[in-house]
Amino acid sequence: MAQDLDAFRAETREWLEASCPEEMRQPVDGEGDVYWGGRNAEFKNEAQKAWFEACREKGYTVPDWPKEYGGAGLSPAEAKVLRQEMARINARPPLSSFGIWMLGPALLHFGTEGQKQHFLNEIARGEIRWCQGYSEPGSGSDLVSMQTFGEDKGDHWIVNGQKIWTSYADEADWIFCLVRTDKNDKYRGITFMLFDMTNDGVSTKPIKLISGNSPFCETFMDDVKVPKSYGEGIPAYVGEINRGWDVAKYLLGHEREMISGAGNKERSGSLGPKLARNGIDNPVLRAALAEYDIDALAFGCMGEKFLDELKVGKGHPAQPNMMKYAGTELNKQRHELMMSAGGSRALEWESEETSGGTPARSWLRTKANSIEGGTSEVMLNVIAKRILELPGA
Amino acid sequence: MPLYLDEDQQMLADTASEFMAEQGGIEKQLRHWRDKGCKDGFGHGLWEQFAEMGFTGMMVDEDHGGLGMGHAEAGIVLEQIGRNLTPSPFLTSSVMAASALDAASDDLKGRWLPGLVEGKSVFAVAVDEGPKHNPQSIKTRAEKSGNGFKLTGAKTFVVQGASADMLVVAARTSGGDADDDGITLFAVPRDAANMTQDPVRLVDSSMASHITFDGVELDGDAVIGDVDGGRAVLNKMLSAGRAGAASEGVGVAGGAFDMTTEYLKQRKQFGKLIGEFQALQHRAAHVYSELEIARATAIKAAQMLDEDAEKADLIVSVAKAKVGKVARLAVQEGVQMHGGIGMTDEYDIGLFMKRDRALHEFLGDHYFHADRVARLSGY
Ligand SMILES: Cc1cc2nc3c(=O)[nH]c(=O)nc-3n(C[C@H](O)[C@H](O)[C@H](O)COP(=O)(O)OP(=O)(O)OC[C@H]3O[C@@H](n4cnc5c(N)ncnc54)[C@H](O)[C@@H]3O)c2cc1C
Ligand SMILES: Cc1cc2nc3c(=O)[nH]c(=O)nc-3n(C[C@H](O)[C@H](O)[C@H](O)COP(=O)(O)OP(=O)(O)OC[C@H]3O[C@@H](n4cnc5c(N)ncnc54)[C@H](O)[C@@H]3O)c2cc1C
Q: What keywords is this UniProt entry annotated with (chain B) (predicted)?
């Protein structure tokens, strides 16, 4: 077993050496460095394209998914080796998508064979870009109070309502969306639907953020016709009708895992050595960095433990909430320190030196970490209730 | 290695947890010896039971009667020791001294290890010379004298020094006070002439000694490892101790935290269980999260020592510092959430606070290790 892994490691190293272009071995530094796939996707450069295509061939856009769904079918141990080897050379993720992080795991768990064959392969090949329609203006933390309604018309629904904070809705091809299909049952009256954003009646409006970017939208659904099926064995909903809340919660676990940054070397690595290159001559800042590095490296250990346990089904099912809480609070602190170390230069908003204000914009973006995917307060509520089993929580 | 306990380790954890709760519990050990004013601060009977369980020699190799286990396994036992505040010489004897003796001659091993394995002997380690951990500076000197050495100087806060049958003493055989080279470790028997002990009781009821060496004569075969080349052995011993202290700290924090969440589920105020107040829930959930991270880090540090990994020293310091911060948080929140009753001697929660303070100081506090993390990272 260990020998097989050693062989796999050697093989992986060789493959990475041959397949991962030098430009793709740099830390991600802004939105343009990430490839999201989709119908309208464009590669930033040749290297990004080559790296994505090499990974797609190997199934390495989703290494631990089964081969028949576009993955590489790696065992947990092999997937860990691949992660380690990619981290070793700072390889960028070849493809980022809500399909990989969120919808994919939900389909693997709840989907029909037909849905898996169809949607998972599309996701793995980066063909369709997905967005998440959960939040509504009146329903954020209290997600289950959502009101978007789908009226049953036999072979289809007519959906009306409004979603908000839909990340990249204006660039997404399809949406996975929570729709109320029974007004009388709060939890058992929600259906988890999948539909095309080009359907009549779907429209989006960007929301400008404090970072000056607008990756989010309000999404309006105005008499949208959603068929109940996309063909033999491919229903347009995941799980059962009216039982979408189970799927939604399962997916949130994966979303939180992803946002936590567990296993993300750039986010759980130390900061001091990097910033020290600019010379830290202030002992108080040095001490703050050392404190941060302790927390970051410790979180890195936790990330490793969390992923190891996840793969073998150990650990508490609510653990992703703890990881999300700890990881996002840490990431905010990381960017505070990067701003401090950067000094006035980090305040520049449009300059070339800062690639258009990257430090400041990234810092502002991280403030959302403890809000998106469930706020830190909500994470603490879940930990208190489900893990610590405190009363009345 | 995956970062969770494998089957054998889980079995050890279950055994250690049951044993320590039954035999090493607070009432039976800590309070018992404390209230008696015991000069050792721990029970030798329990130490022999440790031996029967196979704990005392768990890090000793099989050729010398031990079990040949690693830091990861020692950490499992230490977590249970911490959780029950069990006073014992396990960390100094079975982890630190055993790690140093690993580098000793067969003669020296033959002299000391059987007693350790049987639970008859207790060892202490004498490194520090002031109230803050500073192993870089060692002033105690050992001069060549005939076939042996003459030891002169003083060590402070040697945990269980006065109870120990043998002390691992770090002394300088050449060079300047802060040099890396020129350090030699000695195995000094308790009855050595010209050695005086001045024991003090610490806040956690443990005993520590201030020891003076006034020309203590040592045979040449008291040397552990190489003359002048002791820094590497010393570092190994310190790493073993620091990783071990981190595991024990996880236990202290975990014990305090469990006691606190239990209390939150029992105590009523304003007509509600206090655990229903979100102000307390969020703080408890925060402590839980930090504690999980600290535990992962302590396991990682022990594994890296076992694997002799390149960054082991760095992660050991991360673990000692992180656990230090987290255990502090857990015991302080523990006392706070117990309200007034947390301030009474009758309730155990305060005992956790005391043990945390002593353990935190041992082998470098959180500031010491933060500084070390920065240095090892090149800034
Ligand atoms: C960057 C980003 C990306 C996002 N992407 C998407 C997306 O793609 N799709 C999507 O559907 N949604 C998305 N969201 C929405 C996100 O899920 C919600 O913003 C989040 O769930 C919080 O809801 P809210 O904004 O309505 O805040 P509210 O729920 O109104 O919360 C306001 C404050 O009250 C606190 N609070 C609320 N309830 C409690 C409670 N019970 N106890 C204690 N405190 C409480 C909150 O913690 C918060 O501090 C995104 C948000 C952000 C910031
Ligand atoms: C050193 C000392 C001297 C004292 N001297 C005197 C004295 O001279 N005379 C006298 O009468 N009393 C005295 N007291 C008692 C003191 O006033 C009480 O200990 C204090 O009011 C707290 O009450 P409690 O101990 O019952 O804790 P509890 O009320 O049981 O509280 C336990 C925990 O729950 C929390 N909690 C309780 N209610 C809420 C809530 N609604 N929301 C959030 N958290 C909550 C508390 O903050 C605490 O963390 C003394 C106490 C001490 C420690």
A: FAD, Flavoprotein, Oxidoreductase
Q: Which residues of B touch A (CB under 8 A)?
A: 2-4, 261, 264-265, 272-273, 275-276, 278, 281-282, 284-286, 288-290, 292-294, 296-297, 299-300, 314-315, 318-319, 321-322, 325, 369-371, 373-374, 377-379
The answer to whether residue A118 is domain-embedded is no
How many angstroms separate the CA atoms of A344 and A337, rounded?
13
Q: Give every residue of chain A whose pLDDT is below 50, as ranges.
A: none
A255 assigned to active site: yes
| Residue A84 touches partner B, C-beta closer than 8 Å | no
Q: How many CB pairs under 8 A join A and B?
A: 136
Q: Residue B86 Cα, ligand 2 centroid: separation in angstroms?
A: 30
Residue A17 in any domain: the answer is yes
Distance (Å) from CA A293 to ligand 1 centroid: 29
> Across all residues in chain B, what is the average pLDDT?
97
Judged by its nearest atom, the ligand closest to the C-alpha of residue A368 is 1
Return the pLDDT at B116: 98
The distance from CA B363 to its chain's CA centroid, rounded to whole angstroms, is 8
Q: What φ, ψ does residue B275 adopt, rounded to 5°? A: -65, -10
**The pLDDT value given to residue A186:** 93
* Domain extent at residue A29: 2-96
The total domain count for chain A is 3
* pLDDT value of position B176: 94
pLDDT score of A179: 98
pLDDT digits (tens, 9 = 90+) for B220-254: 999 999 999 999 999 999 999 999 999 999 999 99
Contacts of A302 in chain B (CB under 8 A): 292-293, 296-297
DSSP state, residue A261: T
Give the integer Cα–Cα distance in Å for A362 and A332.
Answer: 10
pLDDT of B8-35, one tens digit each?
Answer: 999 999 999 999 999 999 999 999 999 9
User: Is B335 within 8 Å of B343 (Cβ atoms)?
Assistant: yes
**How many Cβ atoms from other residues are within 10 Å of residue B270's Cβ?**
8
Taking only the tens place, the pLDDT of each residue in B290-305 is: 999 999 999 999 999 9
pLDDT attached to residue B30: 98
Question: DSSP assignment of B175-235, as one string?
Answer: S-TT-SSSEEEEEEETT-TTEEEEEEE-TTS-EEEEEEEEEEEE-GGGEES-TTBTHHHHH
Judge whether B350 and B344 are in contact, CB under 8 Å: yes
> Looking at the structure, do residues A304 and A341 belong to the same domain, yes or no?
yes
Contact A298 B322 (CB under 8 A): yes
**CA–CA separation, A306 and A323 (whole Å):** 8
Q: Relative to the CA of B336, which ligand 2 atom is closest?
A: 49
Q: Contact A77/A5 with Cβ under 8 angstroms?
A: yes
Q: Are A28 and A266 in contact (CB under 8 A)?
A: yes
- Distance between CA B13 and CA B352 in Å, rounded? 21
CB distance B3–A301 less than 8 Å? yes
Domains in chain B (CATH in brackets) are 7-121 (1.10.540.10), 125-228 (2.40.110.10), 232-376 (1.20.140.10)
Q: Are A9 and A85 members of one domain? A: yes
Which secondary-structure segment (H or E) carries B11?
helix B7-23
- The β-bridge partners of B209 are B158, B199
Asked if B377 lies within 8 A of A377 by C-beta distance, the reply is no
